[in-house]
Each structure stands twice: as structure tokens, then as C-alpha cells.
Write a structure and sequence with these properties.
about 300 residues
């Protein structure tokens, strides 16, 4: 058995831990690591126990005192054992470092192997993406159906159908990422609308047209833009936070959110409603009846004059 206080055995263990990649047997590495750890710990404990025994050992002469020669030799032996024990502790720490690096190396190699397998699967998927449409066209022309007039189709028809199918597939290949991003953004915007659905439901009873344009804005814009808008319109302050009414920020100098001319035109009628105190206690039908009553009251004197 090699002397464990030397560096060469640990160097051999290091070379085994980092040799080869995925072909290195995991259980062999774990077995050797456990074996080396047990041997190093046993060697260190043996040295520590021997050093403790030497420190407690007392050798006396006939007159009850220890000679200077024996004392100096005993001190030298204890010093040698302390040096060997320190080397054993250093070897144990070096072993733990090598073991952790070996495990990290194994994990890295496994991750690289998974990445290579994923790349191979991606290549196979791309090939299948190209050849499955061609197989579909070939199967379609190979069917014995009367409607296809099997047996009389020319190679030109087959070529045109194949090229058309491939162009469709390639177009979908380039459009798919855009559709995926659009669907992701739509799901995110719907989550933002779902979070504000109570305010929108209440706004629908106050101003259906305004609630409709708020819904369209939330559907087409990020929630990080939709939330400040309903706050600056004064909707979130009253309906969400249940605080007292205050002048909407969109009509004051505190406005910090720019809007395009289109959305400026659609949102200002909502601000004309929320700028009045108690707006959340009114409804669309109530305001319509008030306007109708006011119109009839104004039109009454003119009819009387006529």
C-alpha cells in the first residue's frame, strides 16, 4: 500500500478523476473516492493518536529525572510526528478539493453531453420538418383515388406541388418565432387585464365605450404601460385603492406618460368623466337620462316661442 503522506498517490487520483469524459465510470470514481477518504482519515487518526501517546509518555531514570539526551530525542520524535500529521491533514484537504473538482468536471461533461444530444435531436427535427411535407406529397400522389386520376399525373404536377408545400413549410418556419412571441405577449397582456378585471367591469357600467378602449389598450400593450395609464386616469386611485377622489394626473402637470395621438383621442373622454368628484357613483344610463332631461328642458322654451 502506498504511503498516503506522499503527493504521488493523490496525483494519480487526480489524473483518474479528470481523464476521459463521459466514458469515465461514475461508480468507479465514487468507489475510489470513498476508499481514499477512508484511508486518509484512518492514517490521520492513527498519527494523531500516536502523537498524543508520545506527548503523554513519561520516561524517568533511577533518580526520577529524564536525561537531556532522551528528552531531546523525544522532542525530535514528537516534532517529526507533528510534521507528518500536518502533511496528512494537507493531503486530506487536497483530496477534498480534488474530489469536488472531479464531481464538477463530471457534471460539466454530463451537461455537454446533454447539449450535444439536444443539438442532434434538433438536427433530426429540422430534417423531419423538411422531409415530412415531401413524404406527404408523395403519398398523396401515390393514392389510388378516382378523384386524383391516379396514374395520369405528370412529374410537373408533382414538382409544383412539392415546391409549393416546401415554400409553405419554410414560410411557417420563419413566421413561427414571430407568432410565438406574439402569443407570449398576448398571454402576458391578458394576465394584466385579468388583474384589472374588477376595475374594467365597474368602468363598463360607467362608460362602456371607455371600458372598451381600455380593454383594447390593455390587450395591445404591456401591463407595465397599462397600469400607469389607469392610475393617471384616476381609475385605479378610486376603484383600486379606494382612496378619495383627486384630479387625474393626465390632465395636470404631474402627467408622466406619453400617448400617441390615437390613444390621446380615445382616453381624453374617460378623463372628462373621472375629473368630476363622485364619478364612480354614476352610471352610463344615469348620465344619459340627465343629458336627455337637459336637452328637453332647453328645447322646451324654443317650442313654446314657436
Amino acid at each position: 500500500m502506498p504511503r498516503l503522506c506522499e503527493k504521488k498517490p493523490l496525483d494519480r487520483f487526480r489524473s483518474k478523476a479528470f481523464r476521459g469524459g463521459r466514458d469515465f465510470v461514475r461508480y468507479s470514481f465514487e468507489f475510489e473516492a470513498n476508499l481514499w477518504e477512508y484511508a486518509l482519515l484512518m492514517h490521520r487518526d492513527s498519527l494523531a493518536n500516536t502523537l498524543q501517546s508520545l506527548s503523554n509518555f513519561q520516561l524517568s531514570t533511577t533518580d526520577g529525572s529524564m536525561s537531556d539526551t532522551i528528552a531531546s530525542q523525544r522532542k525530535a520524535v514528537i516534532l517529526d510526528y507533528e510534521t507528518v500529521l500536518k502533511t496528512a491533514n494537507d493531503n486530506l484537504q487536497a483530496f477534498y478539493t480534488i474530489e469536488s473538482r472531479g464531481i464538477s468536471h463530471r457534471a460539466t461533461m454530463d451537461a455537454l453531453g446533454i447539449a450535444e444530444q439536444s443539438e442532434s435531436v434538433g438536427q433530426l427535427t429540422f430534417l423531419a420538418f423538411l422531409f415530412i411535407p415531401l413524404s406527404f406529397v408523395a403519398s398523396l400522389f401515390g393514392m389510388n383515388l378516382q378523384i386524383l386520376n391516379s396514374g395520369s399525373a405528370s412529374i410537373r404536377s408533382f414538382t409544383i406541388a412539392s415546391i409549393g408545400t416546401m415554400m409553405t413549410v419554410v414560410t411557417l418556419l420563419f413566421v413561427a418565432p414571430l407568432l410565438s412571441r406574439t402569443a407570449h405577449a398576448l398571454r402576458r397582456n391578458l394576465d394584466g387585464l385579468r388583474f384589472r378585471r374588477r376595475e374594467l367591469r365597474k368602468m363598463a357600467t360607467i362608460t362602456p365605450v371607455g371600458a372598451f378602449w381600455l380593454f383594447i389598450y390593455g390587450l395591445t400593450h404591456d401591463p407595465e404601460l397599462f397600469a400607469p395609464l389607469i392610475k393617471q386616469l384616476g381609475i385605479w386611485v378610486v376603484l383600486g385603492l379606494h382612496q378619495d377622489w383627486e384630479q387625474p394626473d393626465i390632465l395636470t402637470s404631474r402627467r408622466t406618460m406619453p400617448l400617441s395621438s390615437f390613444w390621446e383621442k380615445k382616453m381624453m373622454p374617460i378623463a372628462d368623466i373621472t375629473k368630476h368628484r363622485g364619478w364612480h357613483e354614476t352610471t352610463f344610463w344615469q348620465r344619459w337620462r340627465d343629458r336627455r332631461t337637459l336637452t328637453m328642458a332647453v328645447a322646451g322654451p324654443h317650442r313654446a316661442d314657436e
